[in-house]
Amino acid sequence: MSQKTGTPLNILVLVKHVPDVQFERHLLPNGHRLDRQDSVLSELDEYAIEAALALAESRGGEKGGNHVTALTMGPAGAANAVKKSLQMGASAGVHISDAALEGSDAGATSLVLATAIKHLGGFDVVLTGMASTDAETSLVPAQLAERLGLAQLTNLSAVELDDANIITATRMGEDGAQTLSAPLPVLISVTDQANEPRYPNFRGILAAKKKKITTLSLAELGIEASTVGTAGSGTRVLDAAPHEPRSAGEIITDSGQAGLALVDFLADAKLI
Amino acid sequence: MLKILVYIHAPAQTPTKGQRELLALAASLGEAAVVLGDNADDAARAGLHGAGATAFYGAVTPEQLRGELIAPAVSLLVAAVRAAGADAVLLPNTMEGREIAARAAVRLDSGVITDAVAVDQELNVTKSVLAGSYTVRARITRGPALITLKANSVQPAEAQDSGAQVPPVQTLELGESGPAARITATAPHIASGRPELSEARFVVAGGRGVDGDFGPVEDLADALGAAVGASRAATDAGWIDHSAQVGQTGVTVSPQLYISAGISGAIQQKAGMQSAKYIVAINKDPDAPIFEIADLGIIGDLASVLPQAAAEIRRRQG
Ligand SMILES: Cc1cc2nc3c(=O)[nH]c(=O)nc-3n(C[C@H](O)[C@H](O)[C@H](O)COP(=O)(O)OP(=O)(O)OC[C@H]3O[C@@H](n4cnc5c(N)ncnc54)[C@H](O)[C@@H]3O)c2cc1C
Ligand SMILES: Nc1ncnc2c1ncn2[C@@H]1O[C@H](COP(=O)(O)O)[C@@H](O)[C@H]1O
Q: Signal sequence: where (chain B) (predicted)?
């Protein structure tokens, strides 16, 4: 599989630990923060990990000197997102954890992540998911490109790297399918169209136990607590109200006339 | 009076519904000026002026906006915010709109709120979060407020012939906008003749249950003047273009009516459609989760229900 052409790559992949979308999710009454129990690796970040591993493997993988580091910022449990990345095949993990980070919005989050990326240094590719499944903003990747001064290739449905270290990629933009090109280093985000994420296998799970997860605090990154968390964020939630869940309406079984009943429904609702 | 900038990504011969929504919201908050994300000829500017734009900002070199991804547009927007002394910027809640807002917020040291459905006179923003399970009000606490507005959220401005003189474009230098990817080719979407999915009043969507044939879905859509949507199972199977995918990783829609045919109603599909005013679901399986949120649920075969409904609509329309 692996072609040992081109220089080895140093890749960083950003992963987030989020409440499982399959369960009901809640905002906590004070401060309107998200209840983060029952969290998992954001499923959209699995595509980013897969893309990172595939890029590394195209240059000969770990044996070829390629390195994939998984980085997360979040409370203690967030280390699990890094652990799963290591099980899938990442070589090393980093977890930024600090009480002062609570309540960080996209701007504050991207500030911390960008500072950590500079601190860790020397990446050819920074890879992210298309959106976190809790915040769902897709702001962090673009803000990282801005803060790191990297070309942004975001929401990609296909990525290729040639021997001359030029990335060619496709994205479905508002104006149509765009073909993009940029030399390394770059910031990339991938969609769920980009690949099929692998499952950690037994060997991967065993190997992950020997891999190291480094923890970093704000002090180690030289970040002032006042520039992050609620205090450092440029947005503030004023209030939050749960939606009345949608309830089921009328349910009918077709016995040959349901198409007509559908049209009656539309007429009654004054839609036609 | 607040100064509000509206970012128009692709000025068209007549402003789109989404663009008229942005202008209507801007005019309700203050004085509405437009930032042109590309060339806009006299007709395009007259259309935007007729829909409420009182001033225009554009790039000295609009080619740059087309040749490189996002970074030049950020430079233009930031220059326009400074030239106009803007209090807020409204952008479309598209991939491009969010990304431009994201980076502009870093340069302006301000905040961004995405997915807005309403903005009040104090610039407090209403949006829904966690796939529609909460409504949240939030505000931007420093710098010019950057807000991306979801389609179908406000009454669009009427595009009228203003009669008055159309204001000229104030051109701005983009300067050095930093490293960016080159856009080497763009393959435009194939025009279907149907309404734009994200802005449509009605959507008819098909899933794995159409089993390869979108004919009945398209036929009902055309009888209703609706856009066609799909589940990821249908787009992954290649039965319809990926741009029709509704859901977490596809398009988010908020139409008056969403007809879901042969779609089970997975959480990722619901995330993109459950803010529809009315939901009608057709599914063979009485236990399909989509029935839990449908205003009308029909247990039946879409291959017979959809054509019958389409024929009945055409009959009633005469
Ligand atoms: C990261 C991620 C992101 C995703 N993003 C999205 C997204 O954006 N949008 C999305 O839609 N999905 C998304 N999915 C996939 C989602 O989880 C479901 O797999 C998908 O929505 C299922 O599509 P479906 O309902 O068409 O197919 P199925 O779940 O297979 O359901 C088909 C339904 O059709 C019914 N049916 C069959 N034949 C007929 C007939 N003749 N008449 C009537 N009914 C019939 C069946 O009873 C069944 O309920 C995502 C998944 C992941 C992991
Ligand atoms: N706290 C975080 N830690 C690590 N990566 C993150 C974090 N927040 C966001 N990201 C990355 O940024 C992407 C987009 O997230 P968002 O902008 O929140 O929608 C995610 O898919 C992650 O790759």
A: none
